[in-house]
Amino acid sequence: MTDGPPAPPFLPSEADLSRCVHCGLCLQSCPTYRVLRLEPDSPRGRIHIIRSLVEGRIGPTPVALEHLELCLQCRNCEAVCPSGVPFGRIMESARAMVTKRRSAPLSWRVRQALLRLFLARSPLADAAIAAASPIAPLAHRLAGRLPPPLRLLAASTPRPEARPYRRHGVLARPPRPSRRVGLLLGCVMPALFPAVHRATVRLLALAGCEVVSPAGQACCGALFAHSGDMDMALALARRNIDAFLAVGVDAVVVNAAGCGALMKEYAHLLAHDPAYAAKARLFSSLVRDVTEFLDEANLPPPTRPLPLRVTYQDPCHLAHAQRVREAPRRLLRRVPHLALIEMEHPDRCCGSAGVYSLSHPGLAHVLLSERMQQAASTDAQVIATANPGCMLQLQAGVRLWRMPVRVAHVVELLAQAYEG
Ligand code: SF4
Ligand code: SF4
């Protein structure tokens, strides 16, 4: 960490803050306001707190910081704001400012240290997930009998079905490839959901792409940016930019909505870094969520029928941050005999929000409960989504509410429709 007064992206800009006209149109879209009914837990209230902190009119008291901490950073408010307030980057910069001013409470510092330990070095993430796996069956069985704060934690214990997919080099090379794309592996996707990477590579190859995974790539940095550790988020962004630009790709494909959202914002985060500003702009222009990339790619029509009732949960960082809503639905509708049934409010946060279900299990449980009721009312056999955090959270919901439902990434279902 360097000394000196904070500057963007370690400080919310006046231009961003002043866009809020206090109309309140975002309030009913904010999950924390809907549950808690408190103005300081609304987007408008949080912007007021952040501005007061920036101007030094209030100090970083535990009460003020808790209102910031309760924000899921789901960016639902951003999607409905008529003034275009970039709430996501305001909140990220506000947390970075608190950290930079050395005002972060102990809980923030512990979280930042744990994230640095486990996610900045991927093999440690793999090892932690593998270590949790043996206790998963017992934790899942006991989850329903535990008190609410522990219930969600136990039900979320990961149980990967295969070895981590952490491969580098050329992953697929079809004859006469039309494009060369880079695949972000991410910090937890390889160990938690290796089948999602396998399906992604298979579909990209079917679409005529050579798929490469540069060895120097790293975690995208999203969880660091969300938790106020902007120094580490920027360091990881620079590593990814160098790694992907060095191998010369036409697109950087991402199958985790939270990662893609931040990688599209590297250009903004590094705008003040003379050595990286231009490279970051180029990199961000190449980033595509896997669903938007495949929707526009030259995929042959799937042939294998999947007679399934499927409902789709919009990941917040795909629908609200990247504004990608129709591409995943169009891909699902291509699958023969698959019935896509919309649930009520499919773009409401499921309560996962990175590590929110660990830091605020009570509120995360309330949001998940609402989500599972809405999914159950569709009578779907599969809940499809496009982000590992949402998958983990929805799987926990399926276990807690004993639903006969499978949770799958959109690309897993689509790849299944090409099997055989
Ligand atoms: S964030 Fe946007 S919608 Fe919410 S109060 Fe401000 S201007 Fe209105
Ligand atoms: S990011 Fe989500 S939780 Fe935070 S203020 Fe906006 S809508 Fe509310």
Describe the protein:
The protein has 420 residues and is α/β, with parallel strands linked by helices. The mean pLDDT is 95. Helix 23 links the parallel strand 8 and strand 9. The protein is globular, with a radius of gyration of 21 Å. Among the domains are: 14-104, Fumarate Reductase Iron-sulfur Protein, Chain B, domain 2 (Orthogonal Bundle); 301-416, Rossmann fold (3-Layer(aba) Sandwich). Helix 3 packs parallel to helix 6 and helix 18 (290-296) packs across helix 20. The protein has a 5-stranded mixed sheet. It is 50% helix and 8% strand. The longest helix has 17 residues, at 230-246. It has helices at residues 14-17, 31-36, 43-54, 62-69, 76-80, 87-100, 106-118, 122-132, 136-142, 148-155, 189-192, 194-206, 222-226, 230-246, 257-263, 266-269, 277-286, 290-296, 316-319, 326-334, 356-359, 361-376, 388-400, 410-416; strands at 169-172, 179-183, 209-213, 251-254, 287-289, 309-312, 339-340, 382-385, 406-409. Bound molecules: iron/sulfur cluster (2 copies). Residues 29-32, 43, 46, 71-77, 87 line the site of one iron/sulfur cluster (SF4).
In short:
The chain contains 24 helices and nine strands.
Q: Which descriptors would you attach to this protein?
A:
single chain; 420 residues; alpha/beta; Fumarate Reductase Iron-sulfur Protein, Chain B, domain 2; Rossmann fold; 5-stranded mixed β-sheet; 4-stranded parallel β-sheet; 24 helices; globular; binds iron/sulfur cluster
Rg calculated over all Cα atoms: 21 Å
Low-pLDDT residue intervals, each spanning 5 or more residues: none
**Beta strand count:** 9
CATH class of the domain at 301-416: Alpha Beta
**Span between N and C termini?**
54 Å
Q: How does the overall form come out from the CA principal axes?
A: globular
Biggest sheet details = 5 strands, mixed
- Counted by DSSP, the helix tally is 24
Q: Which small compounds were modeled alongside the protein? A: iron/sulfur cluster
- Please give the CATH architecture of the domain at 301-416: 3-Layer(aba) Sandwich
* Helical percentage: 40-55%
Strand content range: 5-15%
Mean pLDDT rating: 95
Structural class: alpha/beta
- Order of strands, main sheet, comes to 1-3-2-4-5
CATH topology-level fold name of the domain at 301-416: Rossmann fold
